[in-house]
Specification:
By secondary structure, the protein is mainly α. Helix content is about 75%, strand content about 0%. The protein has helices at about 5-35, 45-70, 75-100, 105-135, 140-165, 175-200, 225-250, 250-260, 265-275, 280-290, 295-320, 330-350, 355-375; strands at about 140, 355. It is found in: Membrane.
């Protein structure tokens, strides 16, 4: 005879199975929808459907990223999500630049800068805020986080600031030799960081003990099987393809809305960057709510680093086929925001502890970036 509690248990198990099922179905349907709508003019109702599946693909990507992360452990899990998102994003940028003509000459710069500001202020600030709300003080490893921040600052300055001040060519652009150097240096620094993060200094990127000596354990019970982890890895890639592709699909509607609102055309890139980085934002927020702030910071700074370290080499190779100048140098307002981000980041990271104030500071910088992008 089945008791009431047994029936409730079976219902809960069924609901969980259905939830796992939708994380498989939604990404696949989102990719099918992407194939049907790519490079087509869409009516409003279809755009709404694409946006709905975009949101579902984001949630599915977060779920599968957590499964993979739990199987491979940290910091490999954060690395998988950051690199997967960035590789697909880079492919989209290069494709648009090759086929977009003059209007995409600054696309790489705008996208990379938006990604740096969103990750180093938005994701990082939100993670610190959520961590501090739970414990009063968010704790993390200053050695690992500081090294990551230094790498991001170096990559951003070399790739986005220096072109504004070089004199070999007019305008904020590199010569081919300068671009090649920046590409090699960016890729080398990123690979060196990955070696440090996953090698002899791996412990710098793991959650640190709290004041009472405890370390918050992962909420998952047993690690998934290898088969389940590989399936989630494949579905993660499918979901991320859907996220980036569907974001591009809804971009004409965004462009029309931006034009009606009398906002700068470059603001569309900010909105698309926000959509593309949603999986990492949600994953970082969930980690911070579980009192694993270090994992959230790994995602934030790792995503910024991957965005620069992989995009610049990719566009350096693509520049062989690109026509017209490749604009990489930032303007004065953007450089001021980047410098403010670096200074605030250093002061936040050095103590290895952060309160609500530090989280609020970084979110305020992100707010300033978004506002000035809309009203330059």
């Amino acid at each position: 005879m089945i008791t009431a509690s047994g029936k409730v248990g079976r219902v809960i198990a069924t609901l969980r199975a259905q939830l796992r099922h939708w994380t498989v179905v939604v990404p696949l349907l989102a990719v099918v929808l992407l194939a049907m709508t790519w490079n087509r003019t869409l009516p409003g109702p279809v755009v709404a459907v694409v946006a709905l599946f975009l949101a579902g693909a984001v949630l599915a990507a977060v779920h599968h990223a957590e499964v993979v992360a739990h199987k491979v452990g940290e910091p490999y899990g954060s690395l998988v999500l950051a690199v997967a998102v960035t590789v697909i994003e880079v492919a989209l940028i290069v494709t648009l630049m090759i086929s977009g003509g003059e209007k995409t000459q600054a696309l790489a710069r705008d996208t990379v800068f938006a990604a740096v500001m969103i990750t180093c202020n938005g994701i990082l600030g939100l993670s610190l805020l959520l961590g501090a709300l739970r414990r009063g003080v968010a704790v993390f490893n200053p050695e690992g986080t500081g090294g990551a921040l230094a790498t991001v600052a170096t990559l951003a300055t070399l790739s986005l600031v220096v072109p504004t001040f070089t004199t070999s060519r007019p305008g904020p652009q590199f010569t081919p030799a300068q671009l090649a150097f920046a590409a090699v240096a960016s890729l080398a620094l990123y690979l060196l960081f990955v070696m440090v993060q996953t090698g002899r200094h791996r412990d710098y990127f793991l959650p640190v003990p709290h004041e009472d000596g405890t370390v918050t354990a992962d909420e998952h019970a047993d690690p998934p099987s290898t088969r389940a982890a590989l399936a989630s890895l494949g579905l993660l890639i499918v979901a991320l393809v859907a996220v980036v592709g569907d974001a591009k699909t809804v971009s004409p509607t965004l462009e029309a809305g931006v034009a009606k609102a009398n906002l700068p055309p470059s603001f569309v890139g900010v909105v698309i960057a926000l959509l593309v980085l949603l999986p990492e934002t949600l994953a970082a927020a969930r980690a911070a709510r579980r009192d694993r702030v270090q994992i959230s910071l790994n995602l934030a700074l790792g995503s910024a680093m991957a965005s620069i370290g992989l995009t610049i080499p990719a566009i350096a190779v693509a520049s062989i086929w690109l026509e017209g100048p490749l604009l990489l140098g930032l303007g004065g307002t953007e450089m001021a925001l980047l410098a403010l981000t670096a200074v605030a980041g250093v002061l936040t990271v050095v103590p290895g502890r952060a309160t609500l104030l530090q989280g609020g500071v970084h979110l305020a910088i992100l707010g300033a970036f978004v506002f000035l992008a809309a009203s330059p």
